[in-house]
Design a protein that fits this description.
Helix 1 crosses helix 5. By secondary structure, this protein is of the alpha/beta class. Helix content is 39%, strand content 18%. The strands form 2 sheets. A 6-stranded mixed sheet has the order 1-2-10-7-8-9. The protein has a 4-stranded parallel sheet with strand order 5-4-3-6, with helices on both faces. The chain is globular, with a radius of gyration of 18 Å.
């Protein structure tokens, strides 16, 4: 029992792959971030950015907050902002699944949809213009150090604890890069030999939650020295693996998790031995209106 919903953020389970990983010398664990109350890994960053910002006085309950999002961060921010009684507007491309839009609105956030051809970059430009011209304050997940610090404080320590320090490789999709930056910083402090593997889409692939950013949009929190290796995954590979996760491992997740799992399995096949942890970013129910799970 808990008095605060935010106490339920984090301490998500690690589950051993029983089917997809076929290398008996490698243990592959999935960290199930869909178990967070808002349904994704982004609950951690949203809570830390909001709580820390309020504590420092960066904004107040009278502030008008705005943020561009592709989905999960927006849902998490809507939930946390509602808990704190904050006014927030979330901006996303109009081709986002309706489940994500409806969930943000259910939590009480204002949602603005921008033209799909502009992608998340267009949504970011729209939000930046509102900040400059209309006095909004940006949460700024792409440049807010409270994003990656959430994972330094929680995700990294949980993985270290639950693998008893035996982890050899950490695999994470790269979007805002907060998860991989913070987890890497912690794990490297504990054991410098831990290999950090980031996952990006191949050229011309579109995988929600994973990006290969143009230089001008590269998240300011990203430090390439914290990533030992980048693996690229195609849209088709991510889709197929997302379906296999559900059917073969019983893990219902979105495409970014399928992308990370594709990379983690590729890695596992290369290793003579090891303990690999891969992030399962969210739940699959927010993608049901897409064709992701169509036969």
């Amino acid at each position: 029992m808990t008095n605060n919903l935010t106490d339920l953020i984090g301490n998500t389970p690690l589950v051993l792959s029983k089917s997809l990983n076929t290398n008996p010398e490698v243990r592959l664990y999935f960290k199930l971030e869909g178990q967070n109350p808002g349904g994704s890994v982004k609950d951690r960053a949203a809570y830390n950015m909001i709580a820390s910002g309020l504590e420092r006085g960066d904004f107040t309950k009278e502030s008008r907050l705005i943020e561009a999002t592709s989905g999960n961060t927006g849902i998490a921010l809507a939930m946390i902002a509602g808990l704190y009684g904050l006014n927030i507007e979330l901006v996303m491309p109009e081709n986002a699944t309706k489940e994500r839009v409806q969930t943000m609105r259910a939590y009480g956030a204002k949602v603005t949809l921008t033209p799909s051809e502009g992608g998340i970059e267009g949504a970011r430009d729209y939000a930046e213009a509102r900040v400059k011209k209309e006095g909004y304050l940006m949460v700024n997940q792409f440049g807010n150090h409270d994003n990656w610090k959430a994972h330094f404080k929680t995700t990294g320590p949980e993985i270290w604890r639950d693998t008893r320090g035996e982890i050899t490789h950490f695999v994470s999709s790269m979007g805002t890069t907060g998860t991989i930056m913070g987890t890497s910083a912690f794990l490297k402090e504990k054991k410098s030999s831990v290999q950090i593997v980031g996952v990006q889409p191949t050229d011309n692939s579109s995988i929600p939650g994973i990006r290969k950013w143009p230089k001008e949009y590269l998240p300011k929190i990203f430090d390439p020295s914290r990533v030992d290796r980048i693996m690229e995954v195609s849209e088709k590979e991510a889709e197929e693996m997302t379906r296999r996760l559900a059917r073969e491992e019983g893990i219902f997740a979105g495409m970014s998790s399928g992308g990370a799992t594709t990379a983690a399995l590729r890695l596992a096949r290369e290793l003579d031995e090891g303990v690999v942890v891969s992030i399962i970013c969210d739940r699959g129910d927010r993608y049901l209106s897409s064709d992701l799970f169509d036969d």
